[in-house]
Amino acid sequence: MSGDAQASAGDRFAVLVVQVGRYGLDGFAAVSFLVASLYAGNVYAQPAAVKKIIEIGTTDNRVMHQLDVLTNRFGGRPIGSDAYDNAAEWMLREFRSWGIEAHLEEAGELPVGFNRGPWFGRLIGGDQPMNLHFVTPSYTSGTKGLQRGHVLIEPATEAELKRMRHQLKGAWVLVSGKNVGWPVDHSAKADSIRNAIKAENVKIEQMNDSLMKENWTKGAHHKTIPLRRMPGLFYKEMCEAGVLGFIQSASVPLRALYDRPLVNDKNTTFDNLPEVCDIKLDEHQYAVIEQMAKERREFWLEFDIRNHFKLGPVKYHNVVASIKGTKYPDEYVIISGHLDAFDVATGGIDCGTGIGPMMEAARLIALSGAKPKRTILFIAFAGEEFGLLGAKAYARTHQNELGKIANLFNRDGGPTPPIGISVPQAMYDDFVEICKPVKNINPDFPFEVKVAKPRKRPTSTGGTDASVFAVEGVPTYGFTTDDIKGYNFSYGEIWHTERDLYTKNIPEYQEHTAVVTAIVALGVANLDKQLSREGMYKE
User: Is residue 533 part of a domain?
Assistant: First the structure.
């Protein structure tokens, strides 16, 4: 307990002593209870409400239902998609059904929208026919129905381009490099880089010609200078020649992000979208196909990719729900995650494991009958994957409220459960009391409050929505998590890949997370004083 809190409790104790003297020993038991509660610190949460949260959370936990609907009914949900908009509307319906006020808050707009349909590909001919394992990034073109074509390796020089120009029409072109999720860059900046590389390669070719001549005429043993490479070096020329699409090697599990230059270009319209698809192919299959192409064998690839664009501009929204505070309605505790998810999978982990427990925590608090002193906000941010867009929009719109946020509990890190929290010394006593009921949830899950050393205040945003608020000085202390039962979860395996699915969740972890989140957030909301920010950051 802080010195101020102790003094306050002492003053109230003096009053109670007077009351005992006035009313005698008959009321001593009641007074003793009150005194004990005063010196135990603040009333961190209504005991009956906490008991109810634990009861419902351990007997009728619905976090996996929330995740099932979010991932298996709506699926992947990049902003600008019907899936995202439908998921947002569904969240509104759910919050309101629990008696929680909820609304959509506009966070921005995109020049066009995007929806993904099924995709299929196969190799035909040769001696190794196969179904193809591939993905395409969001906001990239599909095929014009089922498209079959031959395979070429992209040209590295003007001479190669000239030699194969006639064959480019109706071809699938293997491009250099290894996929990291992004499509082949077709921006003006990329075109400038390509032009510089082309000019440099002309000089390299001239030098190589001289070296080879000396090798031939003088018996020298010069090694040629390697040409510079870039995926789709002759991108525009190949598109103009009529290629069907570009294929790039990709590690397994396959990762796919989005066409960032297209989404961020204010000049993008429905009428100037790329029309050539961008395929990221399993590296093992790519190697086979590349070798067959080098051998000039006769075979074909067939793709049907149903990527569809929406006429823009397309607005996107944060989902904001609230349980209004009874004593400090203009002070806030925030539980958050991001609603958007890349759509080559279904966003079961990133960020289903943030949204699911957040929703269930809201339900548990609502059903418990709790009346928090501070307002508890439940926020599903939009566009985290596109640059923390929803969080940035919220921070701009609610700038005057940032100093009144006790803590933002943002979850964006996988299905592992909370096993503790590290906070500054000034917050430590409060969190110890707040977190005591957590130990009554499940004996299999430990929980420890630790003291965190002051950290350097960030000057720029990072990889999660929480960083937007940390830059503004808002407390963003989150739970320490761990795969304590050894389910062998690997975040790197699912991160923005085809394996980010509902089935990667761990039900008992998610259920526990929801209950812990509800209890701790409610405890912070019920403090008599706002959490101290002393010791958060280094001077």
Answer: no
Task: Give the burial class of 36: count Cβ atoms within 10 A of its Cβ; 0-12 exposed, 13-18 middle, 19 or more buried.
Answer: exposed
Quick one: which H or E segment has residue 25? none
Same domain, 444 and 481: yes
Closest to 61 (Cα-Cα) out of 465, 403, 507 = 507
**CA distance from start to end of the chain:** 24
Residues 326 and 449 in one domain: yes
Tokens of 413: 């890190």
Give the C-alpha separation, 25 to 395, whole Å.
Answer: 55
**Under 8 Å between Cβ of 83 and 115:** yes
CA angle 204, 207, 211 (to 5 degrees): 135
Residues 469 and 331 in one domain: yes
Final residue in a domain of this structure, among 278, 310, 342: 310
DSSP state of 69: I
Q: Token pair of 519, please?
A: 């209890």
Residue 395 tokens read as 């921070």
Residue 122 near residue 403 (C-beta atoms within 8 A): no
- Asked whether the whole model's pTM tops 0.85, one would answer yes
**What sign does the CA torsion over 16, 18, 19, 21 have?**
positive
Residue 121 is encoded by which pair of tokens? 């590909």
Q: How far apart are CA 440 and CA 437, in angstroms?
A: 5
Residues 131 and 57 in one domain: no
Q: Quick one: three-class SS letters along 362-425?
A: HHHHHHHCCCCCEEEEEEEECCCCCCCHHHHHHHHHCHHHHHHEEEEEECCCCCCCEEEEEECH
Same domain, 432 and 451: yes
Indicate whether 174 belongs to any domain: yes
Evaluate whether residue 531 is within a structural domain.
no
Q: How far is CA 207 from CA 210, 212, 224, in A?
A: 5, 9, 8
So what's the pLDDT on residue 126?
82
Q: Considering the domain boundaries, does residue 532 fall inside one?
A: no
pLDDT beneath 50: ranges in the chain: 1-43
Cβ burial 402-413 (10 Å sphere, 16+ → b, else e): eeebbbbbbbbb
Q: d(Cα 524, Cα 148) in Å, to the nearest integer?
A: 61
163 and 298 inside one domain:
yes
Residues 331, 480: one domain? yes
Model confidence over 389-416: pLDDT tens digits? 999 999 999 999 999 999 999 999 999 9
What is the tally of structural domains in the chain? 3
pLDDT digits (tens, 9 = 90+) for 297-345: 999 999 999 999 999 999 999 999 999 999 999 999 999 999 999 999 9
Q: Give the residue numbers spanning the domain of 172.
A: 116-310
Same domain, 73 and 26: no
Distance CA 505, CA 502 (A): 6
The enclosing domain of 280 has a CATH number of 3.50.30.30
